[in-house]
Amino acid sequence: MENEIFNYLAKYSDEIRSRLIRVLMVLGSFFLIFVVFRIEYITVFGKRFLFIYPDPYANIGSQVLYLLKVHILPPGTSLLIIKPVDGVMADFYTCLALAVILSMPVIVYELSKFIDPALKANEKELLRSIIIPASVLFFMGAFVGIYFIAPILFRIFSAFDVGVGASVTVSISSFVSFIFLYIIAFGLSFELPVFMVGLSKFGIVSSGTWVKNWRYAVVGSLIYGMIFSPGVTGFTMVIIALPMIVLYFLGIHFAKKAEKTDQSDKLDSANQ
């Protein structure tokens, strides 16, 4: 098995390298822009325009991080620098995350073009049909997690901190780690319907199987919420698990529709 993998990689090493270089060039370009430049308004003839200019100390990454702090953290909460490099690393991680997000279309495109020759016609059609919904759902999940859920959680945490007489402070490294964790957790959880529909369209898992095993899905969602829950508290675990449970039942609905569509297509082709 190891020899087969090695031979496969050796055979396509040039293509892998060229596609990886293209991805890294785009990713690196975005990263440098976010690290080096800052966004500001300029006024020309009484009208305001967005403009970027070099400012590595207050760059785009730090601007985005500041906006997230204002939106997510309750008023009066202070971000702390525990180690001298915490601010630098938080800024760089934010710039890298932004670069990955904006480079995602290129990453998906290069990956799909690499695996395209190995797929059958129906598999290629399925892949093309799910790329856009999967991308949209991932960004929707990340948006819901950061914009709606994260501020609620921090308000609850802050209320408990005040209740025990503690000052409300958050280390900047913990804050950035929390944001990235929520982006990944909610983004991936929103991919569940696409995953279910794909398996049903391939005939690997029927919609009836999804219906039969809904209890396991609920338990699995709670376990997923426990893994990605900050502090592993029951409340935050349920907050993460609930959208997954709703999405699971939506996946069942769309899997049933996909099966009906496939059956009607087969009947039409047989009649012809």
Largest sheet entry: 2 strands, antiparallel
Counting helices, strands and paired strands, the structural category is mainly alpha
Q: Would you count the extended β strands for me?
A: 4
Strand order of the largest sheet: 1-2
The Rg value, from CA coordinates, equals 23 Å
Number of helices: 10
- Report the principal-axis shape: globular
- What do the pLDDT scores average to? 84
Could you characterize the architecture of this molecule?
The protein has 10 helices and 4 strands. The chain has helices at 2-11, 13-36, 60-72, 86-115, 121-163, 172-189, 192-201, 207-212, 214-228, 234-271; strands at residues 37-44, 47-54, 78-80, 169-171. The strands form 2 sheets. It has a two-stranded antiparallel sheet. A hairpin with a 2-residue loop joins strand 1 (37-44) and strand 2. The mean pLDDT is 84.
